[in-house]
């Protein structure tokens, strides 16, 4: 009888902690809405995401509300291209960080003679998709900071507001 209770408690604890382990991920998620020039949702737009480092491609199509989502992306640089017949191709360079959930509103323009819009810039700092607070420490900082014994807490304390 006592052994059965211990097994039940042990199994309950294991299930509780395994659910928490799935909540954290190193992968980024890219999502957004494709809009026409009047700001209405644009369905069935072809969205292509190409990794700058590996040249791996991901293809998705926006749904009836113009929404698309590309999950499980490794951190790094990407080129996003949105295409649809009758509209110019929209190209954007992105830098995705660890665990980032980036949401974009992409407005299409009516096609001209080979119009290509190339927007290069940083993604917004404000996270509008969830309330998570995080910081990415650049590899240069990791290599060049004088860390005593390479303790993780020393890196955490380099982030403003960390306790």
Overall description:
Helices cover 20% and strands 35% of the residues. By secondary structure, the chain is an alpha/beta fold. It is extended and about 60 Å long.
**How would a crystallographer describe the biggest sheet?**
5 strands, mixed
CATH architecture of the largest domain: Sandwich
Domain tally = 2
SS-based structural class? alpha/beta
CATH fold type of the largest domain: Immunoglobulin-like
* Spatial order of the strands forming the largest sheet: 3-2-5-6-8
Give me a quick take on this structure.
A five-stranded mixed β-sheet has the order 3-2-5-6-8, with no helix packed on it. The chain is α/β, with parallel strands linked by helices.
Main features:
163 residues, alpha/beta, Immunoglobulin-like, 2 domains, 5-stranded mixed beta sheet, 3-stranded mixed beta sheet, 20% helix, 35% strand
């Amino acid at each position: 009888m006592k052994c059965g209770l211990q097994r039940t408690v042990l199994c309950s604890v294991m299930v509780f902690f395994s659910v928490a382990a799935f909540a954290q991920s190193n992968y980024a998620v890219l999502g957004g809405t494709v809009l026409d020039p009047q700001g209405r949702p644009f369905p069935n737009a072809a969205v292509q995401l190409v990794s700058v480092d590996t040249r791996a491609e991901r293809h998705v199509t926006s749904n009836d509300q113009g929404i698309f989502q590309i999950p499980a992306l490794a951190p790094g640089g990407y080129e996003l291209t949105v295409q649809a017949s009758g509209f110019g191709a929209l190209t954007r360079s992105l830098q995705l960080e660890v665990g980032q959930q980036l949401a974009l509103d992409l407005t299409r323009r009516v096609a001209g003679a080979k119009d290509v819009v190339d927007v290069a810039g940083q993604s917004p700092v404000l996270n509008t998709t969830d309330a998570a607070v995080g910081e990415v420490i650049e590899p240069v900082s990791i290599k060049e900071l004088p860390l005593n014994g390479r303790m993780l807490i020393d890196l955490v304390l380099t982030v403003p507001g960390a306790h």
